[in-house]
Every structure is written in structure tokens, then in C-alpha cells.
Amino acid sequence: MPFSAATQWLEEIDATSVANLIAAASDIALIIEDGTAAIVGDATFSNEDLAQEFRSRWIGQPWLQIVTSESRPKIEALLADAASGAPLRWRQVNHPSPSGEDLPVVYAATRIGKSGRIFAVGRNLRPVAALQQRLIGAQQSLEREYGRLRQAEARHRLLFQVSGEAMLVVDAATRRIVEANPAAGRIIGTDSRELTGRGITSVFEAPGRPALEDLLAGVRATGRMDAGTARTANGEREMSAAVSLFREDRASYFLVRLTPAARNGLELAITEEHSLVLDVVAQQPDAFLVTDPDGRIQFANPAFLDMVQLASEEQARGEPLERWLGRPGVDFNLLNAHLREHGSIRLFATTLRGSYGATVDVEISGVAVPDGDDPCLGFTMRDVGQRVATERLGAKARPRSMEQVTELVGRVPLKELVRESSDVIERLCIEAALELTDDNRASAAEILGLSRQSLYAKLRRYGLGDLADTTDERTRP
């Protein structure tokens, strides 16, 4: 709607003021010469980049020729509305650009003055178009992500339903079963759909329910997987329940996996037959542990717990072994690669880092057990810290070969390793020079570029040669 008293308020405004006002209020403004050709007489741009790109290309050209072909009917409509004095109406047109990307502009046009010239003001829609493009891209990305999530959910639900392992999803707050797979229904003795909504303890015998409640409370408090045993409510089977905690939509749930505690008489017989061996493993002074193929600890004896300064096996169970190895990301990868290739490894030297900063020099032997339902890796670790210290003292704590230097990687800082490497190289060079000169120290000093005094000092440092020999080196052949 126009001003109600434009003549009263705007009659004193001069042309310069009008031009400045128009330039400030619009992104693009064009002055179109009257006539059928509708030539662009002048133009102003609020953006300097637009001015450099289009100003020289537009001025002096017909307005119809500087727009795309599909926009020409809109330009003709703008010119007709301006000539007839119709109310302003905005129309979007596109200008071809040298860069290849059209410039979208929404125009309104009106006749000005007595000369009949037409004045067109435009708004640059490039920022809006870019924003719309980003919005479309974001929407497409979200749709693709939702598609992937739906597919993953479908795969997980299918695995949950067809899995032969009995699984229950339990609300951690109410202890009620949210979902149960068919295998759980079979092992408990009821339809899996009837389990939904029941309390988890109701599917087990009353004497074992307090222990199960304690198990669930412990898992929720620590967040770590744990296991226990209980008998189903029908009293037919003794079950082993492995419980883990997960979060979904700001709520906590238990995943309870049920397996028969003793699957058959043979398994029970084997367990009883080897109970003595298991007791020995638990009490032996060398560390012993079993991990899954990815290196997560499933069993650890007290000796290992002492080495890594842990109070209980639960603190180690489920944790990656490389957390305590001397070179994280290196040692376990080497062990795992060797076990995959050869099946076993002996006397792998490294260090164990305790939870409170203590370090222990150890030798690791390991074996891979790839067969069976649960592939695993077994490791024994022997504390060799006292032996290593004795060897270092016997050698005056100085390595005598590059192999001994490389064995120190991970045990001493890099700066010390570099210094030790330099000493080993210097010692080897002196030994080689003495051998080449048949132990002629004067000649050895000459080929090494040292004075005899410096050579003698290095001989004393490395304990080379008979330093009590005072024979004049110059008299030797």
C-alpha cells in the first residue's frame, strides 16, 4: 500500500537522495528507457561482486535480452504493468551468469517522472537459493540416515528373532520384560509373547530371585557385564544368565542372555575332571588370562590382577588387554598378528602398566584357540623384572648391540634410546677400527679421526683392550 500523502512529504526530495534511498533499499535497481526496446539505461548494485559481474554486461542492453528465455514473459508482464500504472507486483526472473549459475532476482517495476522511464527494483535471491539448497541437502542426508537406521533396526530385529540364544530385554527401572525372542520362550517353557510385561524374577524359582536382583543391581551400578545362575520357574533347567546394560532414548535396559548352566553330561564331567587344573591356574604365581579374539579379557587369575593393580576380576573382565600393555596399539597388534599366523607365541618381551602407575617387565607366551563355539586367546605372563635388572647391572646397564637397544623400546624414553644407540654405534666403530689395524691404537685413532688421548678415554669407557699395555703404538708395524 502506498503512502497516504506522498506529495506532502516527498516533494522536496531531490534525485540524488532518491537514488541513494533506492540503492540502500534494494539489492539491484534498474532504470529502463521508455520504448519498445526497454533498454537498461543505468543500474545500481548493493553487492560489489554483483556489480563487477553484471553492470557492464547489462547497461545498454534490452532488458529482455539479459534474462533467460523462460523469464522473458515475466519481463513483458512487468513492463506492461508499469506502463498501465497497475499496482506493484513482484515477479521472479533469472539472469544468465558468466560463471554458469543463473542469478535469481525478484523484481517490481513502476513508471517514474514525466519522461516515461521505468524504474525496476530487485532483490537478490542467491542467498535464499543457497539456503534452500543446503536445506534440501540436509533433508536428503536425514532421509538417507533414517533409511540406514531403519535397515539396521530391521537387521537387528531379524537377528534377535532368529537367534538360537535366548535373550530378554528388561527395563532397568521396573525390572519388567520389554521383549523376548522365541528362543527365550522355548527355554523358559512358554510363548515369547506372553513374557512381555512380566517381571524378570517371575520366570525363575523363588530361591534364586534375590541373587538375580543383586546381579541386576550390580550391573546397573557398575555398567559392566556380569553373570549368575538361576533355575527357571518350572524347575526344569539351571540357567546361566549373562546381564549387560545399555541405554536407549534416555532409558536404561538390561540385555539378559540365557544358556543352560550344564548343556549335557559330558560338559559336566569335563568340568569336574579339570577342576583341579583350574584351581592350579588360579593359584599359580605367573599371570594367566583368557581373552576373546579382539583382546577383551574374559578370565584373569589373581597374579595378573596383582601385576596390573586391580582389586577384583570384575574390574578386568570385558576390558581390552592392551589397556595395560607397555605400548598401547602396538604390543597387542603384534601378539594378535603372530597368533593368527602361527597359532602360538613364546617369550614376547614387554611391560605391564598398573592402574596406579607401576610397571612390570614381563615375558608373554600365548596360544590361539580358533575352534569351538567361543574362539579365544590364552596368555601367560611371567615377571622378569629382577632378571632384566640383573642383566643390566651385569652389563653395566649398557646395551652391547642394536638388538639389545631395540628390546628397550617401550621400556625407556626415546631420548635415552637415542643416546644408547649412539654409544653402541661408537663402540662398534672402535672395535672395527682396532680389528682393521691389528689392535694398533695409533692407527685406529687416525682412521677414526681421534686423538690418541680421546681414543684411550673411549677405550676405558667401553672397557675395550688391555689398558695396562703401555707399549709405544708407534713402534708397532
User: Got a strand count?
Assistant: 15
Strand content: 15-25%
Q: What radius of gyration results from the CA coordinates?
A: 43 Å
Rounded mean pLDDT is: 80
How does this structure look, described?
This protein is of the alpha+beta class and 477 residues long. 42% of the residues lie in helices and 23% in strands. It has four domains: 6-124, PAS domain (Beta-Lactamase, 2-Layer Sandwich), CATH 3.30.450.20; 163-265, PAS domain (Beta-Lactamase, 2-Layer Sandwich), CATH 3.30.450.20; 275-388, Beta-Lactamase (2-Layer Sandwich); 402-475, Arc Repressor Mutant, subunit A (Orthogonal Bundle), CATH 1.10.10. It is built from 18 helices and 15 strands. The strands form three sheets. A five-stranded antiparallel β-sheet has the order 2-1-5-4-3. A five-stranded antiparallel β-sheet has the order 7-6-10-9-8. A hairpin with a 5-residue loop joins strand 11 and strand 12 (297-300). Helix 16 (414-436) crosses helix 17 (441-448) and helix 17 packs across helix 18. The longest helix has 37 residues, at 126-162. The radius of gyration is 43 Å and the shape is flat. The model is unreliable at 262-271, 393-397 and 470-477 (pLDDT under 50).
